[in-house]
Each structure stands twice: as structure tokens, then as C-alpha cells.
From TrEMBL:
Alphabetized UniProt keyword annotations: Membrane, Transmembrane, Transmembrane helix
InterPro entries per record: SpoIIM-like (IPR002798)
Stretches that traverse the bilayer: 106-127, 229-248, 260-282, 294-311
Protein name: Stage II sporulation protein M
Native organism taxonomy: Bacteria, Bacillati, Cyanobacteriota, Cyanophyceae, Nostocales
One Pfam family in the UniProt entry: SpoIIM
Length: 317
């Protein structure tokens, strides 16, 4: 290989890559146009090949080191820069994107909330009229513990907080995923999950009220329930979005409707996951903690719910 001829032929590429990198290092990757970004990636691959050839042909330490530095700079800007952009996109989504999606899909979330609350109210009414109704939904062992021993069941979490927290989170995620996936049944399974969980909460609320344990029960529920229940309502809303795409695609064909409404459902899912992780941690470590006074538990629950409402109604200025 004629080294001098090879260098003179390849040197313009090296200089061009250096010029692009200087601009990126000074002003950021966004200062480049789309064609320049593609050129940067192409030059990086080309110069990396030149480096490999220089090392193989032993063209000299100075040139090899220069090419090594050039490729390192390019790698840093292309790959680490893209990672920075990814993190910026994540921050942007949770700062503004998710609240916008919640506002856009609010009718679906409201429908899911209504089904749940209606189930809870019906269970509450029936359980007061007929106490045997509770046994249709609540395990007999739990009923016995509350009625005969006048104790709540949350104390079993104390001492196994990490395991309980992870199990709670996994269970809540499975319910949420089921509610979302239930949209593929035209919303039938989503409706069933929301209705059944509403009935269960209503029956439990009646059971503890009948045995004068409502105050400590809701003190346990409020801290994590302020995030856990809205997350389930979000999941129900996501399921109904998918059902809408299948049953009422409107101006879209069903494939395009699933893409559009499915995208909204996935964005809601990205909001649900951190909510349930936080809720599971609170339910495992804070809610059942006997050393925390009940008023503080109520205060935390109400505070978290207010923060969630304010966040969900956030608009870009």
C-alpha cells in the first residue's frame, strides 16, 4: 500500500469528520441538519475502517493515535449523545406527555372509574341488606378474623415487607395488564375486572364498617390506594381504548385504529408502571406499619392523590 497516497485520499474524510465533531461538541447534536447527522454516522464508520487498516499496515503511531482519538470522539457523540436524547425524551414524556395523554383519554378513564365505583356501591348496599352477601366475595377465614377476633389482616405484612411489597406490585401489575389486554375482548374482560374489584372493595368496606374497624382499614388503604386505584382506572381506560379501536374504529380501518388507540394505551401503561411500583412499596412498608399514626397515613394518602390530580391536569405553558 502506498501510504502517502492512501493518506491524501482519506484525509478529507478525517477533516470533515473533525469539523462536524467540533460543531457537535460546541453546540450539540441538534445543531446538525438531518443530512449532516447521517453524514456524521457514515464518516464514523469510514474512519473506524481507516483506523483498523492503519493498525494493520502499521502506518505510524502518530497517525494511528490521531485516528483513534477521532473515532473515540465520534463514538462518544453518536452513541452517548443518543442516550442523552433518549433520557431527555423520557423526562419530556413524564413531564408533559403523560399528563396530555391522561387528559386526552379522560372519558375512557372516567368510564373505568364509574364501573369500579358502581360495583363498590352495589356491593356496599347488598352487604348491608344481606350480610351473607359478603361471603360470596370475601374468604371465610378473613371474615372470621374480622368478626370474631376484631382484627384486620394487614398485620401479616409486618416482618416480611420486601417480599410483601414485591408480591403486591406483581399482583397489581397483573391486574392492570389484564385490564389492558381485556380490551381485545371488546372490553368485556376489562369491564369484568373493574366490576369484580369494585364489588370486592365494597364488600370489604362493609365488613370492616359492621365491625367498627373502618378507621384503621381506610388508614391502611389511603396511602397506597391513592395511586393504586387510579393506576387500575388508567389501565381500564387503556383497555377501553383498545375496545374502541375494535368495535368503533370510526374514520380509521381497524388496523390503523389499533395503531392509534394502541399507542395511547401504551403511553398510559408507561404511567401505570411507576405508579404501581410506588404504591406497592408504600403498601409493603408504610401502610401496615403500626408505628405510624393513622392520621399521618390519611394525610399521605390525600397528599399523593392531590399531587396526582394536579400532575394529571398539568399543561405545557
Amino acid at each position: 500500500m502506498n501510504i502517502q497516497r492512501w493518506i491524501s485520499r482519506r484525509e478529507p474524510n478525517w477533516q470533515r469528520l473533525d469539523a462536524l465533531l467540533r460543531q457537535v461538541e460546541k453546540k450539540g447534536i441538534k445543531s446538525l441538519q438531518a443530512t449532516e447527522i447521517r453524514e456524521l454516522a457514515s464518516l464514523y464508520r469510514s474512519v473506524a475502517a481507516d483506523l483498523a487498516r492503519a493498525q494493520t499496515q502499521k502506518v505510524g503511531n502518530t497517525l494511528t493515535q490521531s485516528l483513534q482519538l477521532l473515532t473515540t470522539r465520534a463514538y462518544t457523540q453518536i452513541y452517548q449523545g443518543s442516550r442523552r436524547q433518549e433520557w431527555q425524551a423520557v423526562v419530556e414524556f413524564y413531564s408533559w406527555g403523560l399528563p396530555a395523554v391522561v387528559q386526552q383519554t379522560f372519558p375512557y378513564i372516567a368510564t373505568a372509574t364509574t364501573i369500579f365505583l358502581l360495583g363498590a356501591l352495589i356491593a356496599w348496599w347488598y352487604a348491608w341488606q344481606d350480610p351473607t352477601f359478603i361471603s360470596l366475595l370475601v374468604p371465610e377465614s378473613l371474615i372470621t378474623q374480622v368478626r370474631d377476633e376484631h382484627k384486620l389482616w394487614m398485620g401479616s405484612i409486618v416482618g416480611i415487607e420486601p417480599l410483601a411489597s414485591s408480591n403486591i406490585t406483581i399482583n397489581n401489575l397483573s391486574v392492570s395488564f389484564g385490564a389492558i389486554a381485556g380490551g381485545m375482548t371488546g372490553g368485556i374482560y376489562t369491564t369484568f375486572l373493574l366490576w369484580f374489584n369494585g364489588l370486592l372493595i365494597g364488600a370489604l368496606a362493609t365488613l370492616v364498617s359492621q365491625n367498627n374497624l373502618a378507621y384503621p382499614f381506610w388508614a391502611f388503604v389511603f396511602p397506597h390506594g391513592s395511586l393504586e386505584l387510579p393506576a387500575i382506572f388508567f389501565a381500564g381506560g387503556a383497555g377501553f381504548l383498545l375496545a374502541r379501536a375494535i368495535l368503533f374504529p370510526g374514520k380509521y380501518n381497524r388496523r390503523d385504529a389499533l395503531k392509534f388507540y394502541g399507542s395511547l394505551a401504551v403511553q398510559l401503561l408507561f404511567g401505570i408502571i411507576p405508579m404501581l411500583i410506588i404504591a406497592g412499596t408504600i403498601e409493603g412498608f408504610f401502610s401496615p406499619n403500626p408505628s405510624v399514626a393513622s392520621p399521618f397515613k390519611y394525610l399521605l394518602g390525600m397528599s399523593l392523590f392531590v399531587v396526582l390530580v394536579v400532575y394529571s391536569n398539568r399543561k405545557r405553558g
